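Q: May I have one protein plus its fold?
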Amino acid sequence: MKQAIVVRSDLGMGKGKVAAQAAHASLSAAEAARLRKENWYEAWKEGGQAKIVLKVSSEEDLLAVFQKARASGLPTSLIEDRGLTQVEPGTATCVGVGPAPDADVDSITGKLKLL
């Protein structure tokens, strides 16, 4: 079981901003799993909460990951920033996919590069 966090690399966010947005994506997707796929959530939690952080270079690519994950029935979250610091309000910054079985997450994110 693992979770993938996909971050937009084209926004020029600072390291702290990226970390905060990735944390939002991780927690939101985990909560979705806890509510809809409790067995996946529990297995992931007990197995060490494996995560991988990946990147895309555009909003279009980020939304494609989100839509593909949702269509596949995976727990997912799309993070849109409030716009208080580094990006405009409503900017899509990250997507969380899973926790879910490794193969299911990889089918959505397997070709993306590490952040």
In short: The chain has a mean pLDDT of 96. The chain has one domain: 2-114.
